[in-house]
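#struct-pred

JT: dropping the chains for the assembly here, can someone run the whole complex?
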Amino acid sequence: MKFSRVVNLLAMAAILCASAVGCKNPQRVTPIPKQQAAAPTDRPAGSLGDANPINTVQPTPFDPAGAGVPSTTLPLNTWQAASEQPFRSDTVYFDYDKSTVKPGEVSKIETVANGMKSHAGKALRIEGHCDERGTEEYNRSLGERRAQAVREHLVRLGLDSQLIDTISFGEDKPGEPGHTEAAWSKNRRAEFILLEPPGGSASAK
Amino acid sequence: MKLKSFCRHFLTTVVLATLAAPRVFAQEIDITGTVMGGFPPPVPVSISGFTGEVDSVLKQDLLFMGIVNTTPDKAKYLISGSNAGRVEGRVIDRINKNQLLAKAYTGGTQRGQTHALADDIAQLITRKPGIAQTKISFKVETGGGNSEIYVADYDGVNAKSVTQDRSLVAAPCWSDKSTLYYTSYKLGSPFIFSHQLTTGARKAVASFSGLNSSPAVSPDRSRVAMILSKSGSPDVYVGNPDGSGLKQLTSTREAESSPCWSPDGRTICYVSRDRGPASLYAISASGGSPRRIQTNLAPNPTEPDWSPDGRWIAFTSQVSAGFNICIVPSQGGDAIVLVPGEDPVWAPNSRAVIYCKGRDRSKTLSLLDVPTKQVKTIARISESNSQPSWAR
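RK: done, full complex below.
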């Protein structure tokens, strides 16, 4: 009993001793020399890199003028949806991961082609969409290809290609929110939007 | 007998006293086993002396740079320091006791100082560029069908929006460390813009009819690859940084997507569904015939990203159960399936990857140490976070 108390004291002494040695060595506590040749870094010793948050400023409005801007095509992106939308029920649906127009969907495109005859001075936007079962940019391209497949049909039926714009939203604008085949089949689609020039149809010549 | 008992008792007391010192192990990692793909195994170190956020940030930073905290007896290097006031740290080779690094950090926040220390340690031990002070950019769905571009530290901290357009954005890509390229629908169609973050200047890079998307700035920043559909289907183009001097690289009837550059800037890898399901292809950046990149064991590859060291292409594979993050040798071959998720992007050290996971409308970003498959989910901003880009 006594002996073990002695042992405990010895042990504590040993630990205290060890920490005392540690304290005696200033290297242990405040070791930081000004220069360290061993440190392979581009930055001066002890300095921070670009760890600070990026100093961002309020962005300017988008400047549409740029080298990549075409001067020849009609800027249909500035046209707006007409107040009357006659082709809401003619949305074309696609098979999974496909951009070919199914035979059963062709009649809707014919309906739109005929309908456009009574909308002189207006244009058409075809919105391509995908279900969520693809990656984002893959779907953005697939949605565009779907819209373009429908556009090709319309041009074959006699519509002016300059008056048909295509836009892909990929999977960004699902028509149905669910995660089932029932929802997905509704989301793989091309919608028709009737467009009028900026300022309304009155300004169309 | 008595002596033996004395020794045992003495040793037990000392050992217990040592164990009583608080020490937290973030995770158990097998540091003895071989690591797949020829990646260097994590370097074992023992980290002591730091507290709170500094301690956890340092350990996480090092984990994604191939350095793992373990017990002192298994450690190759001993990392010690303190964060009372400024962050100080030093590295000692455990075997020969040489001090290899000793630094104190001033300025910024303690978190920033910790990142700087982590980068110095990583560069010293792994001879790879540090990633702790790098930035990411990504798409944030903010509700109401809108999305904005955000930037943040690589670990998701200090996130801030760089757009407030209340429109749709897509696929940000870093050029230099203060310039982003991305697609915005703000002007009515998906156009590609460059955005200088420090001046706020935004210029159209491609605004043709149809789709203008997926800008990818070359490693030397002299060219931009992108997807344009002006010729009738989405194809790969390459142009100057301002969008001039365009050259069409593919002319398939089907859709291409997601171009990315080899680190030498000579080759572009992209996705095409020209011959059926999605596949990866490589094409000379100056034009030519595409070559298919096999991704055996990983069907429907999309969203490729070439590692900065040139060895790997990370990509998303789609199977019936969902999406997986995979890597394949850059010349093609057998792929390695890593974790469930989408859109992997390499860190500058060609070891860590950031990717997104989860269902549409509620995706989160996550960091992945490719060789060990250790992951760390980043706090989600608003509704859904996706399409990360790593400044490198």
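JT: nice. The first strand of chain A starts at residue 80 and ends at 81. Helices of chain A lie at 2-24, 26-29, 106-115, 136-156, 181-187.
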